[in-house]
Amino acid sequence: MSGGTGDPRYKLAADNRRARYDFEIGQVFEAGIMLTGTEIKSLRGGRSTISDSYAAEKGGEVWLYNAYIPEYLQANQFNHETRRPRKLLLHKKEIGRLAVAVQREGMTIVPLKIFFNDKGRAKVEIALARGKKLHDKRATEKERDWNREKSRVLRDRG
């Protein structure tokens, strides 16, 4: 269930880099996304953002809210709404697992990235996440700085 980070077959359309800073990432899922033709064309341009977006379960389905996909300029009057809710395509068991985690454990469904797989289909990598407190963010930053300093010292000595 991993997305396409370093794999050349995958083309990244949008990345939520802030999610790993603001949330503790748990289980990761790969979901399809229902899009219109102009949304696909616009996604291929790579100017969309998902940093403010989230996913939620509603009526047995999972929806992606507040994801920004800019209008496709060549589409005239047939264009799409830029921030409309978009349905995510998951198996029933996965939807149930996500719904239980959100209701019982107080977790959030966070989109990590939108990418095109090797067949050219748009996919969304979502994760169950728990929000970090300010002191957790500071600890993460301190650990990152220490690792950077440590690798610099080892590189200079070796």
From TrEMBL:
SUPFAM superfamilies: Small protein B (SmpB). It is found in: Cytoplasm. One of its GO terms (cellular component) is cytosol. Transmembrane segments: none annotated. Keywords: Cytoplasm, RNA-binding. Residues 133-158 are annotated as: Disordered. Belongs to the SmpB family. This is SsrA-binding protein. It comes from Kaistia soli DSM 19436. The lineage of its organism: Bacteria, Pseudomonadati, Pseudomonadota, Alphaproteobacteria, Hyphomicrobiales. The gene is smpB.
